[in-house]
Amino acid sequence: MSTTSSTPTAAEAELAIQARQAAARSQGYWAGVWKRLRRDPVTIVCALVLLAMFLAIVFAPLIAPHDPYQGSMLRRLRPIGTENHILGTDELGRDMLTRLLHGGRLSWFMGITPVFLAFVIGTTLGVLAGFAGGRVNMAIMRATDVFYAFPSVLLAVAISGALGAGIVNAILALTLVFIPPIIRVAESVTTGVRNLDFVDAARASGAGAFTIVRVHVLGNVLGPIFVYATSLISVCMILASGLSFLGLGTRPPEPEWGLMLNTLRTAIYVQPWVAVLPGACIFVTSICFNLLSDGLRQAMDVKG
Amino acid sequence: MFFYLIRRILYAIPIALAVGFVCFMLVQIAPGDPINAIVPADAPGDVVEQVRRDYGLDKPLPVQFGIWLMKVVQGDLGRSLATGRSVWSDLSSAISNTLLLATVASLLGFVLGCILGGLAGTFRGSFIDRAATSIAVAGVSVPHYWLGMVLVVIFSVQLNWLPAMGAGPGGSADWAWDWEHMKHLILPAVTLAVIPMGIVTRTVRGLVAEIMNQEFVTALRGKGLTRGGIFVHVVKNAAPNALAVMGLQLGYLMGGSILVETVFSWPGTGLLLNNAIFQRDLPVLQGTILVLAMFFVALNLLVDLVQTALDPRIKRA
């Protein structure tokens, strides 16, 4: 059969269609996810806002108009719209725009790092519990139950309160807060996958436990766990800034949105709208992460 | 049912013990010698040793936990380093203040959440649905301590309608449901209500939408039942789950009100914790966390039991 033939037989045509369908299926999942995401304006806008914020805080030293630590007793608490200080100045006369840009670095770092660490640790433990079952599952899940017996804010405050103020302690406390919920999600997804036919097939064909987890389980559970973890970033940002707001996270004069909100609290009678600016930054970031996570969940068709 | 009851209560015991252990460990993970949580830093050496022996701090950790547990069970949470008073005496009045604030806030959040969620679930895809869902997302995403500040700016600083701080003349000790007291409660309660409102809205929306899609609702509609009649059926089906969410939210607010209490100087457990953190008053920190966590454990148990009792579909053996 020559390849130049313009009239393929029916069998050939059938094969070609099947091949095309298979190809469409194999790249179909992520292409489909992307296609659904593109049609979701809210998610796209949130992603763009977050991207813009991310770039702004990464390049803060280049684009910020002033020094974040350099204050002036003469220019304290200027209103929004002051010449040279578009967003006013804080209680020590430092430029608000500059400090908000620089402050985002720590706020974002403290909002994302604990979730990332908890994602790694929680997924490991949760997949282990779900895949191993039996006593291992019992031990891990019962330990998780104990941490569920604390409201999350209380647990974060308790641990970082006992350890003392500091960025590392705050991150440690927040990581501990987010490990149990991720374990629960990871365990339930893994338990669901473990009993599917292809896992049985892999086991029957002689694959070891490690191979099955690496090849067959992780690929199917990481997506849902990841989506769940992104929804935690919003909570983590609020909690991290909340810890700083209580004086448990970053320490002055370091710029960080929660801490700025705390030190500006006394200024609400003088320059109320300048004082609430850092909180607005936390709010915008948090709501964008929340909506982005919702969009991802829908686009990736994750249930729960 | 009866066996479920017994088993659920029995299961709460190891959880409560483990929670106690975590609270016990709080003082252990704190930097420095745990003895510093009992005696002031400038105490003479022989006094420190005496106290160490009296408190059993020279014994191994499990024994120490046992000793601590026995004291806690008898209601002895230790003494505050800052004031020298027993932790429980400060804690008891703070808890009633927090309970008042958290109860009002969770009721408010529950009512608003049910209205918004019910409307959104009934008219899915409509403008009302989108508005209610947006409010819910904003509610769970807003840093509530910041919302509290914004409300203070608007209603206290600009409009001068409501007080920005405190729990009114006398606090909860002589709390009365008069305007003088209630106006102190409005701003903190509204601020704190935002989170449960968002969560209850999401839950109720999902529940209502799910129930409305079920066949029995179609059947009811087919037999000619009015909207009001169907509404009663939907409420009956959604209530157990919605109440469970609300119960847990009350627990979250009890523990989570620390930030809002700090913003409004509300004299509850949050303010107590905040002061304890500032003064590194570990006994107060430990005692407050322990009591709040135990409250949460008990509430969890209660919610489970009430939900099982209310919902005949849940058959737990």
Automatic annotation (TrEMBL), chain A:
It is a multi-pass membrane protein. It is found in: Cell membrane. It comes from the Bacteria. The chain crosses the membrane at residues 42-64, 106-134, 146-179, 225-248, 269-292. SUPFAM superfamilies: MetI-like (SSF161098). InterPro entries: BP-dependent_transpt_permease, MetI-like, MetI-like_sf, OppC_N. Keywords: Cell membrane, Membrane, Transmembrane, Transmembrane helix, Transport. Residues 104-293 form the ABC transmembrane type-1 domain. Its main location: membrane. GO terms for biological process: transmembrane transport. It holds the Pfam family BPD_transp_1. One of its GO terms (cellular component) is plasma membrane. Belongs to the binding-protein-dependent transport system permease family. This is Peptide/nickel transport system permease protein.
UniProtKB/TrEMBL annotation, chain B:
Residues 95-307 form the ABC transmembrane type-1 domain. It is found in: Cell membrane. Pfam families: BPD_transp_1 (PF00528), BPD_transp_1_N (PF19300). InterPro entries: BPD_transp_1_N, MetI-like, MetI-like_sf. Keywords: Cell membrane, Membrane, Transmembrane, Transmembrane helix, Transport. The chain crosses the membrane at residues 9-30, 99-123, 135-157, 185-204, 243-264, 284-306. Its main location: membrane. It comes from the Bacteria. GO terms for molecular function: dipeptide transmembrane transporter activity. It is a multi-pass membrane protein. GO terms for cellular component: plasma membrane. Belongs to the binding-protein-dependent transport system permease family. This is Peptide/nickel transport system permease protein.
